[in-house]
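To illustrate the input format used throughout this study, we show a single complete record. The first block contains the structure-token representation of the backbone; no residue identities are included at this stage. The design step must infer an amino acid for every position from geometry alone.
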């Protein structure tokens, strides 16, 4: 499973939605299978976008690393 990790945090849900839409497109293209972010807004939007694709089973998890919350979203088929 290939993961993409980024540390960006957006101020608004709209910014996160635009970002998550581009990430979802990469995941549709199988560039990677999972995404990690400290921004719950990105994880929320990404899970929503991926959940619209019938072939994907969307998984989410909240993890703590170095006293920070990391949100993970990944897909399986």
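Output of the design step:
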């Amino acid at each position: 499973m290939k993961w993409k990790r980024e540390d960006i945090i957006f101020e608004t849900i709209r910014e996160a939605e635009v970002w998550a839409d581009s990430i979802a497109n990469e995941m549709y293209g199988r560039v990677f299978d999972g995404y990690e972010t400290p921004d719950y807004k990105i994880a929320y939007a990404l899970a929503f976008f991926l959940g619209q694709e019938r072939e994907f089973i969307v998984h989410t998890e909240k993890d703590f690393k170095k006293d920070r919350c990391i949100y993970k979203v990944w897909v399986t088929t």
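Structural context for interpreting the output: The radius of gyration is 12 Å. The mean pLDDT is 96.
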